Amino acid sequence: MIAFLQEIVHELSVPGFRNAQGEHWPATMAYIEKKILETGHTPEVQEWKGENSIIYRNYIVRIEGRQPKKYILGAHYDTFEDTPGADDNASSVAVLMGVLNVLSNKEPLEYTWEFVFFACEEPPFFGTKAMGSWQHSSSLEPTSVACMICLEMVGYYSDEPGSQDYPFAPMKWFFGNKGNFIMAVSNAKSRIPAKVIIKKLLNQRPSFYKKLILPFELSGLDWSDHRSYWQRNIPALMLTDTAMFRNKNYHTKDDLPETLNYERMSDLTKDLAHLVKTL
After folding, report:
1. What are the φ/ψ torsions at residue 55 (nearest 5 degrees)?
2. For position 218, what pLDDT does the model report?
3. Which residues are CB-contacts of 272 (< 8 A; sequence separation ≥ 6)?
4. Which pTM does this prediction carry?
């Protein structure tokens, strides 16, 4: 699994390759589709046209389950401007591919799962209806979705004291000052399904996951694709290494494959695959 994740991150983390307004964007979409097909799954394509007639595509893999409710596991594959974007968000794309790589397209699941590779999360799309996640969420009947899980920067870790920051200082008393965990972030409306998912993950690896479910809104909690589902009243949570609060390479040329921890990314991949199979 580690070699699989490393290969994808290295292939994706070429400066300018995943800029959704850049010249290489068609090749980026072709790469995502090719890698999905290599996992043995055939994606559905959700396509739309943006400014300057640029084509954008979400790639959706669906595995049917016995229950009518569905779960969604997704990650965006574009980058901020011309940054290499190893953690942001090649790490999440690799993990999502890794989950698909261990799942059969005829997996006997209790619930239907949609695995979605989103275009257009980064500025200038962020916070607008041009986001790939908005395109997907707006195509859904909200009551049909049990919960959406967003993967946002999941590759950067440190066991050094002081390596973890937070939006406000008192959080260090609850979560510690070492950046060696995945934070599960959700809102009050999503708390019931979010707690079920987080409990499943904690059962697999108790020290690796921490949860943040606040009864009030806080700036930064919606800084990824899960916000599109919250806006549609669909329960959602984000799994993240906390982005700029840990990884100082965020949105810079130094967000490189060599800075990531593939062993911990492999742990997350295995835990998510187990979640899909047992939820």
Report:
1. -85, 135
2. 61
3. 73, 95, 99, 149
4. 0.96
Per-residue pLDDT at 52 = 81
Task: Please give the average pLDDT of every successive group of 10 residues along the chain, which has 279 residues.
Answer: 97 97 97 98 96 93 94 98 97 98 91 98 93 96 97 98 91 94 95 96 96 73 90 96 97 98 98 97
**What tokens were used for 75?**
């990650």
Residue whose entry in the numeric block shows the structure tokens 């050094």:
160
- DSSP characters over 221-250: TT-STHHHHHTTT--EEEEES-GGGT-TTT
Q: Residue 257 is encoded by which pair of tokens?
A: 């494959």
What pLDDT score was predicted for residue 220? 64
Sheet order of strands, 209-214 included: 44-49, 55-63, 109-118, 65-76, 145-152, 236-240, 182-187, 209-214
> What pLDDT is recorded for position 107?
86
What six digits make up the tokens of 72?
A: 């969604």
- Cross-strand pairs, 46: 58
Q: Residue 53, by phi and psi: left (phi above 0), alpha (psi -120 to 50) or beta?
A: left
Q: Which residues, including other chains, have CB under 8 Å from residue 12's CB and lie 6 or more apart?
A: 18, 31, 77, 85, 86, 90, 93, 94
- In degrees, to the nearest 5, what angle opens at C-alpha 2 toward C-alphas 86 and 106? 100
Residue carrying the six token digits 């097909």: 37
Q: What CATH architecture is 2-278?
A: 3-Layer(aba) Sandwich (3.40)
- Indicate the residue type of 102: V
